[in-house]
Amino acid sequence: MKYHLVSLGCQMNASDGERVRSVIENMGYQWTDKEEEANLIGILACSVRQKAIDKVYSKIHKWNLWKNKRNLITFVSGCILPSDLDKFLKLFDVIFQMKDLPKLPEMIQQYGVTTPIGLQQGFDAHNDNISEFWHVKPNYTSEFEAFIPIQNGCDKFCSFCAVPYTRGREVSRPSDEIVEEVKSLVENGFKSITLLGQNVNSYGLDKKGEEIDFPELLRRIGDLGNQLKNEFWVYFTSPHPRDMTDEVIEVIAQYKCLAKQIHLPVQSGDDKVLIHMNRKHGMEKYRQIVHTIKRLIPEATLFTDIIVGFTGENDEQFENTRKAMSEFEYNMAYIAMYSPRPGALSHRWFDDISLDVKKERHRILTQELKIHSKKYNASMVNKTFRLLVKGVAKHEGYLAGLTEGRINVRFLSENKNLIGQFVDIKITSAADFSVEGELITIKESVA
């Protein structure tokens, strides 16, 4: 019996998928890369983006046609809005919320018995028993990279975002479990670990007096890094500017294993648009955070998220976003054209920015990003950087990897034994979003 799983959306769904795989394989199923070979096919949906939902419908339409020729069970989970859930009920054999993952074997054995009312009650109680899900041991899809969920849900209610309605309110995972998982991964040779949450820097705030806060969590992981011999980098995503304190930045600067790369979503460079987005921070607050990062961790790279064409965004407001990109000189920006999602507050508002205008603003910001990304990349030339080799590059004869600051690097080598190892690379040339270098030394981490 074989299974296949498709994960859409953010890294949180990818991380959840590792636990889903673990549960399914404990049932005796074996993974297959080919959907057409599977007896059990699942998808982790993402109601946050319309494109992701469109892909769900495309996939399930194809899978249901296959049922005419062979036995096949389909399931769906992930971030699902009630409006999408109602439609999925008629299309999939099994639907479950991630907190109910431990019950998936029972659901599959008697699929089709879930009632819409019972299912809706389960989705209304988003984070009840989420600890049972966290206790499922992941089936990691990489031997050197791992994601660790540290919280679930979000309390921010940005007007463009559906996450509070798909994952519920914030719930923090016990810190002892998180630190223990980091320790276990590092001792087993993992070299890149990312802490995941919808708003990681509000970690612990839902359990004041019972749990530590995010700076202290990073500090404990940093102390662990000092104790262990193995070399590793720890990242986190995504933080919210409202909760980003100087203490977080100070802790990152203090510990070697805490990667000097920060993803700080700005979404817009205009204060009025930020108010409309219900971001609960202004550009001055954001600017102060970036200045602190530059002062305490000058070597850190800076990534961000930006939405163009949000409802009501005029030319002047968009220009403020372009100026912000120029001011902060991001190394990378994930630029999205706004699209309303049912469940989010902004869905009630008229989407008054045309697709052509959104595409043009996306193009302008991409060109602006290239200027600053290439400027930084050019500054890397003739310098040596530590690199985690991730795999074979698109160019024949090359391997590729990421620096600590998550800059893409390729170098001439066909030695696949280097994949998953740290090496030193001297940068020889730079492009818009990547650099090329030559291998200097091979220094494997202590096993």
What does this entry show, briefly?
The chain contains 14 helices and 18 strands. The protein has helices at residues 11-26, 50-66, 82-88, 104-109, 116-124, 130-134, 163-167, 175-187, 214-227, 246-254, 271-276, 283-296, 315-328, 355-379; strands spanning 2-7, 30-31, 40-46, 73-79, 94-95, 145-149, 151-152, 171-172, 192-196, 233-237, 261-263, 301-308, 332-337, 384-392, 398-403, 408-412, 422-430, 434-442.
What does this structure look like?
The protein is an alpha/beta fold and 447 residues long. It folds into 4 domains: 2-130, 3-Layer(aba) Sandwich (Rossmann fold), CATH 3.40.50; 142-259, Transcription Regulator spoIIAA (2-Layer Sandwich); 263-379, 2-Layer Sandwich (Transcription Regulator spoIIAA), CATH 3.30.750; 384-442, OB fold (Dihydrolipoamide Acetyltransferase, E2P), CATH 2.40.50.140. The protein contains 14 helices and 18 strands. Strands 2-1-3-4-5 form a 5-stranded parallel sheet, with helices on both faces. A 5-stranded mixed β-barrel has the order 14-15-16-18-17. Strands 6-9-10 form a 3-stranded parallel sheet, with helices on both faces. Helix 1 links the parallel strand 1 (2-7) and strand 2. Helix 8 (175-187) packs parallel to helix 9. The two termini are 35 Å apart. Keywords: 4Fe-4S, Cytoplasm, Iron, Iron-sulfur, Metal-binding, S-adenosyl-L-methionine, Transferase.
